[in-house]
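hey so i finally got around to running the thing on that chain from the lab meeting. sorry it took forever, my laptop kept dying and i had to restart like 3 times. anyway pasting the input first so we r on the same page abt which one it is
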Amino acid sequence: MSQRALRLQLVPDEPDRVLRLARFRQEHPGVIIGEGGFGTWQARIPETNGEIVTTRHTLRELLDRLDKLTAARDGQPGGDPG
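ok and heres what got predicted. didnt touch it at all, straight out
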């Protein structure tokens, strides 16, 4: 477990984010998620012609954004391609 994930487990309102992150990583093994610097979280989604990079201040915000991006990519209704 990474240091960041370990620290999240110690924050009272974040343990569910750790579980959500683990679930997302299992469902989308090609998406790289990590610290983006300056206290942010960043994800890289591989595409056939490059990649999508998104950065958010909290893990919750990043996972919410990734849910939208991966839903759009998978062609699910309600997805936001941008």
